[in-house]
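Technical note accompanying the year-one report. For the benefit of new consortium partners, we illustrate the data format agreed upon in the data management plan: each record pairs a sequence with a structure-token string. No post-processing was applied to the example shown here.
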Amino acid sequence: MDKAVIILTNDKIKTYRVIIVLLTIINCVLLTLIRMRTTEDSLGGLFAIGTIGSSMGAFTMSVFSKKSKEIYFRSMAASTLLSSFAWFFMGYGVAGLTLIFLSVMALKTLKQLIIIFDKTGIDYPSFPRKKISWAETENVQLKDNILTIDLKNNKLMQFTLNEKVNPDLNEDDFNSFVKGCI
């Protein structure tokens, strides 16, 4: 075994999805109100209409779809990111910058959390990603679908793994691999 890949379950994903929906709705309402107040046709106004349509399309699909809704939440965050340009074109730079920041953070939170164990260390999915060397690690153990990472600086991380997400993960092989690396 050269490396082990473990996918963590994101316990806060429902909260992040609610925040993305609220961000999309608030953005569309404000863009619509500002677009209604302006009488001239500008590039920003046309861009606002396009991003409102794409945001509401993704929102509608997320509500009525019976398939995986993850793509629609990504689409809402991406269309909100695009709408930041409409805010810039209409002269609201602070709103545009705020939307860029919130949209990028929303897209980051929707990513799958993957921990990679290899010969050089542990690639941990923080923001920004953190590489933990084996010299900093006291112990790593997988037992009964609970992953424990014990660091020498007295930091302890524990994660409950979902068997459905990591079906090929063999407890004995993983534990012997990390013992050999430490």
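Partners are asked to follow this layout when depositing records. The chain has two domains: 13-109, 112-181.
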